[in-house]
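Notes to self after the call with IL:
- keep both proteins in one doc
- input above output, always
- annotate only the second one for now

Protein 1:
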Amino acid sequence: MIPIPGSWGSSGSSWSGGFPGGGGFSGGGGSFGGAGASGSFLFGRTDGLDNAAAPREAGDVMISDVDKRRIAGAIRAAEEKTAGEIFCVIAHACGNYRLVPIAWAALVALAVPLPLIYLTARPAGIIYLLQLGAFIVVALVLSLPMIRFLIVPKRRMWGRAHAEAMHQFLAQGIHLTEHRTGVLIFASVAERYAEIVADSGINAKVQPEVWSKAVAAMISAIKDGRPGDGFVAAVELCGEQLARHFPPGALNPDELPNKVVEI
């Protein structure tokens, strides 16, 4: 797959949108011989997925059951008109990034002794204790989920989310469709990242930039706090492209489950 980069937010990016806490879209390269589009959001706050980056208890959901049924219905309707297959995945987070707060805390702790040594007459033991205390306090504060995901380098989060999208493409068996006509619509809340990945059979007939419209529609709805609408819009637009290039055959088997998976 060859994702197409883009971005959304309030900083003059090409698209706009975001999960709670911020957002902007960015993508990288792929490796399965297909095509797609990807993105991540940097700015803006929405009401639909508050505290999405925080650890979740069993039963917590990002998309309601009603929206899940709507998405499943949109997938069935789209696949009736095409031999292609559409699958949706939404992830709570693609990594915990717990080493990032430790790294920042270490940098702060290394800086603490310098002013104390040159500007005070405190003994070395006291300076050491202050340095240790600074490390512990900063590490604990930065480890809070609401802060941790803000200090992780954006490229690292986007890279992790892209890798998870590629993993889900394989893990969900999207690459196993008979004519390699599977499409994955993927979003990760903590990383504020979304991606559409199409298999190699589609790449032969559909240019990667075609998927940008579906990504943009998904981003716009997510920014407004309507993730269910975003997935439905992306499914419908992907279905239109698949129907144009891959009409249904005589049998048109349903090779993938018609649903959105939360991970």
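Protein 2 (the one to annotate):
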Amino acid sequence: MNFDYSPKVQELRQALIAFMKEHVYPSEHKWEAHVRSDRRWEPVPVIEELKARARENGLWNLWRPKTHGGELTNLEYAPLCEIMGRVHWAPEVFNCSAPDTGNMETLLKYGTPEHIRQWCEPLLEGRIRSAFLMTEPNVASSDATNIQTRIVRERDDYVISGTKWWSSGAGDPRCKLYIVMGKTDPDNASRHSQQSMVLVPAGTPGVRVLRHLPVFGYDDAPHGHMEIELKNVRVPVSNVLLGEGRGFEIAQGRLGPGRIHHCMRLIGQAEMALEKMCKRASERTAFGRPVAEQGVTRERIAEARILIDSARFMVLNAAWKMDTVGNKVAKKEIAMIKVLAPNMACKVIDWAMQVHGGGGVSDDFGLARSYGWARALRFADGPDEVHRNQIAKIELGEQTSLADALGKVRRA
């Protein structure tokens, strides 16, 4: 395991750091002003301006996997994702934001040439956006076999009925495609072969956006997290991905890289929080001495550094394993970082908020929004409890196998 950055990655890191410093950080006030205005559900002008600069600088679609036309492995992309994640809206500038990256990868891996031409190419060019419709309000969607949305075949069409929520990205007026997971064969003896994924154009009759769902009071416009009703929505059978009953297979292939991306972005958010914590602690005095000299503050700064670096190395290890042995073999490592990174970020951001006093829970320093997003990611792509359960099952199996092997050695 050699996690040294290659010359190519070092060059891209420096280019990204320079771009963020020159263009993104100075534009945060423009983004903030837009999303506080009555035009907040429209595309953010400063993001659109910066997209052109990012393309000119060769910083476009860095997420694209090497196996599907890209130039970087998961391990190479991970540190770049961290830099972009320092400002939560910055990934869109580079066409590297969720859920579009996961949806594009899904289309590249499992779509037909026509799916790629019609939907993935415009997404790769940044001309449209997309959403992933999986979670439902009326069932425990942490167990995806509970999904109730029905996909019924009628001759050459599928008819889709159900309600989805937390459909992130569906609030954007440029969102033109939904990838919808539902049941095509609810009576199949295999609970993991009942589901399929189909492509649904956003303007299809029967699709209705019911409301947006705030995250700790933030509506995340224009991205949005929407509740969507699908009522007798009709699409061609050719819109199915990979084939009927393959929905779980696609979900597993889609979520692995997405979890790596979320984790690295969270590390970027935690780094920003630590920087703000150190700056604030050095500038403020309490009880006769700088806050930075208070024992509890120093302890938290040290602990934050330890937690961030620990999480980074675990994420890099998971990325390396995905590259070398594949997502399936790396599932324990992927599950571990999905638990670790959001919890680490929540703790570090919380400490930073504490150092800022009342300002920490305001919008003045961006920490409250960061905390809300980090906390929400303990649900996204599967809640902590699901991943911990998977980790424990794998660990128990490995320990049993080890005990059996040692027993054979002793008997021999």
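Annotation: The chain has a mean pLDDT of 95. The radius of gyration is 22 Å.
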